[in-house]
Amino acid sequence: WRRDEFCLRCVLCLHREGWPTTSGFEIDHLIPLSEREDLKCHYPNLLYVCRRCNSLKSDLRIPDPCLVAYGDCLRVNRDGSVEALNADGRVLVGVLRLDRPERVRQRRMILDILAQAEETGNTRQLRDWLGYPPDLDDLRRFKPPTNRRLEGIEESYFASRERGELPEIY
Length: 170
Prior knowledge:
Helices cover about 35% and strands about 10% of the residues. By secondary structure, the protein is an alpha+beta fold. The protein has a two-stranded antiparallel sheet. A two-stranded antiparallel ribbon has the order 3-4.
């Protein structure tokens, strides 16, 4: 469910599934288990993150991405650098090490590839980089005992694709 709700990308660094610089995704805990073991399976405490961000965040605290719009906290510049726009942004840059040279270089490469694909009209390459992964989960298969978001099934990306409403890229 979190995979779908966080748009098939790491909620912390926004890397998309399928990008070559990402080595898998995991579920992390917003409030670390070292602080609150009782929140281990508490849905609002779960985040969909890439393995790198999960490792970097570790047991550190970050702003809740469901309450704080990270887009208001950070700006990604065309050169791949990240600029903190406020105190929450400074926490994110520090904890996730968003300003490390290898991360800036990777962002710049991705931005360059996308800009070149757009300039040349290479829609296949844009779809490959910005399209939905082929293995979208059919959330109807999952029947948690206390599902309080039954409407989420019909709002899922799988259901949207099935109805022909899913755009090619996101």
